[in-house]
């Protein structure tokens, strides 16, 4: 029985061999109800784009991501994500919440990618690691500058978030920020209207920075539905995550988004930045909560670890469970 369970768990993680299919298999055919039925009611907000003067590093990340996903399937499976693990190659983490599979393959890095990269390129892995290390360093610096600006607007003292700018080398602890770099590939799809790249979700982060040069990202707005976000060359897209939504008492709204597929391949890199696992995320950290417009905390306080555990069970319904 244990072997059968292990095989099932492994098969639930292994992406489709997209190059081997000429049509979209039934397991990957999506109807509107497969995605739309999970749309929650409530406010939505737009992500925003910001220019970043490091086009060379962005191009290197794009090139390394393409190199990774161009490897033969057997090679990529050498770094398959283990059931319950957070790093490695595999399907999207949110896959179990949806009835159909997604037209997507991903590779998750937390800290150094060396252990996995050595299996992919035994004699030529250093360049990949150097690029990803530098990219994570740059993204972390950008996000922490942005968070300081946001904290000021919320009248939250940075001293209450003493873990900001901590030197986390990838071996993060309960007192250091939780970070991850997610590399994504959305292979060319023979019938894009029948498939879904990445189903709708919000990010379990304070802030997420996304890099992509090909269209596919969509966000949901109550008044109009799904809106496509057109990529801007040399710009990064910033998404507000669940933790900032709670921390700001809903002033900064988490972004419900998804990815649709095209007839051409799409690559992206998403850097997630969250609080330490033992940090108590609370609207009460703001000194202005007593103002007339925000007299009551809309969400109860919750540690980052507890929230992550809740979201692993409830996905995008988690926030509603925290409402006061």
How is this structure best described in words?
This protein is α+β, with helices and mostly antiparallel strands and 324 residues long. The longest helix is centred in the middle third of the chain and has 28 residues, at 126-153. It contains nine helices and 13 strands. The N and C termini lie far apart (43 Å). It has helices at 2-13, 32-36, 55-69, 73-76, 114-120, 126-153, 242-247, 304-314, 318-322, and strands at residues 48-51, 88-90, 105-109, 178-186, 198-201, 207-212, 217-221, 225-228, 235-240, 257-259, 266-274, 280-281, 302-303. 29% of the residues lie in helices and 19% in strands. The strands form three sheets. The chain has a seven-stranded antiparallel sheet with strand order 1-9-6-11-4-3-2. A four-stranded antiparallel sheet has the order 5-10-7-8, with no helix packed on it. β7 (217-221) and β8 form a beta hairpin.
């Amino acid at each position: 029985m244990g072997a059968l369970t292990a095989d099932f768990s492994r098969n639930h993680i292994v992406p489709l061999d997209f190059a081997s299919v000429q049509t979209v298999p039934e397991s990957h055919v999506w109807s509107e109800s497969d995605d739309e039925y999970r749309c929650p009611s409530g406010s939505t907000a737009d992500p925003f784009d910001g220019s970043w003067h490091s086009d060379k590093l962005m191009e290197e990340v794009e090139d390394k991501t393409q190199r990774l996903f161009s490897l033969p399937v057997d090679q990529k499976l050498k770094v398959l994500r283990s059931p319950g693990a957070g790093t490695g190659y595999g399907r999207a983490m949110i896959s179990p919440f949806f009835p159909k599979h997604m037209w997507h393959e991903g590779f998750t890095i937390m800290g150094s990618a060396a252990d996995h990269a050595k299996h992919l390129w035994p004699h030529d892995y250093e360049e990949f690691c150097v690029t990803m290390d530098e990219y994570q360093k740059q993204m972390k610096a950008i996000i922490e500058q942005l968070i300081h600006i946001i904290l000021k607007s919320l009248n939250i003292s940075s001293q209450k978030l003493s873990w900001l700018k901590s030197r986390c080398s990838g071996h993060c602890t309960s007192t250091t920020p939780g970070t991850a770099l997610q590399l994504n590939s959305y292979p060319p799809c023979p019938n894009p209207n029948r498939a879904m790249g990445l189903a709708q979700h919000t990010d379990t982060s304070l802030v997420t920075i996304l890099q992509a040069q090909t269209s596919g990202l969509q966000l949901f707005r109550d008044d109009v539905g799904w809106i496509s976000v057109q990529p801007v060359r040399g710009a990064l897209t910033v998404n507000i995550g669940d933790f900032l939504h709670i921390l700001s008492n809903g002033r900064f709204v988490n972004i419900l988004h998804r990815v649709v597929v095209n007839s051409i391949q799409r690559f992206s890199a998403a850097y997630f930045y969250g609080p330490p696992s033992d940090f108590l995320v609370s609207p009460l950290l703001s000194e202005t909560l007593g103002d007339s417009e925000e007299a009551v905390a809309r969400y109860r306080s919750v540690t980052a670890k507890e929230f992550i555990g809740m979201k692993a069970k409830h996905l995008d319904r988690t926030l509603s469970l925290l409402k006061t």
